[in-house]
Every structure is written in C-alpha cells, then in structure tokens.
Amino acid sequence: MKIIDLEPGDPRLEADLLPVLRELRPHLTPELFRDVFRNGHPQGLRFSAAYAEDGTCVGVAGWRIIDNTSAIRKLYVDDLVTAATARSTGVGHALLAYLEQHARDTGCHELNLDSGTHRTGAHRFYLRERLDIVAFHFTKSLTTDGADGPAASDA
Predict the structure, then answer these.
(1) Of 43, 81, 77, 44, whose CA–CA distance to 60 is shortest?
(2) End-to-end CA gap in the chain
(3) Nearest Cα to Cα of residue 106 among 58, 74, 72, 153
(4) Would you tell me how many other CB atoms lie within 10 Å of the CB of residue 151?
(5) Which CATH class, in words, describes the domain spanning 2-154?
(6) For 17-30, what is each residue's pLDDT tens digit?
(7) pLDDT digits (tens, 9 = 90+) for 95-107
(8) DSSP string covering 27-46, please?
(9) Which end of the chain is more exposed for a tag (fewer CB within 10 A), N or C?
(10) How large is the C-alpha radius of gyration of the chain?
C-alpha cells in the first residue's frame, strides 16, 4: 500500500479520492468538494490517499494541524474512511499510522478525531487503535433545512 498527500488541483482528488470519501460524506458533489478544499486548504486542510498495489484508491484521510490552547499543537482528522471493498484489510490502520507519524514529525502533542455516535463499528476500530474517548462534542445547527451542510450525526 502506498499513501500520498494530494494537493489542490491534482486530478486524483476527484477521480480517485472523492468516490471513497463519498462513502462517508455522501452529500459531497464534485463542485462542493472543490469549494471545500479550495477554502479549507489555506486553513490547513489536507488530504491523503491510500492506494492498493493495483493503483486503486482504498482509503482517504482529510486532516489538518491546529494550534490551540488545549493541546498546543494537534493533528485533527476531519475524515477517515476505507473503501467498503477494502475494509478489514489494514487500510485504516495504515492511514492512522501515517497520520500519527506526520503528527510526531511536526511537533504535535495529540492526534484527534470526532466520530458520530451511531458509528459503533468505527468506535471499535478507534479503540483497537488505542485512541481514547476523552470528550463530548457538542453541536448546534445554524441552518433549519440542512441545505448548508451535513447533519451533525454524519461525522
């Protein structure tokens, strides 16, 4: 397996990465994805893609490094998804290990992610990967129809 970071404008973002990301974020259209990455990149948003030996994208991580008062510096995982056809093959483990090493290399004190309360399978995986549940994440929707973004339970 090969994991690479993709930069804005890379055609693999839509051709390879987006179909896998949409398994977790089905609301993303190509146009919306381009907008999010264009706006998020200056804020630190990055995407890493895991490729199988045959060149198929089998996993995606969206992440950013954040400096704040609670962790000082942390790598926050926005998205972590393994293609349905490649689950339980070590893709998620490899992506987390890649992100953890990047976090260590850049002076981060923590690696964080949020996971929707309904995603119990993902929770079992995160606990196996030695991530701890350390906080509650609270959300207040600022839209009434959901047209401006996904439901809070999609995380």
Answers:
(1) 81
(2) 26
(3) 74
(4) 11
(5) alpha beta
(6) 999 999 999 999 99
(7) 999 999 999 999 9
(8) T--HHHHHHHHHHHGGGT-E
(9) N
(10) 15
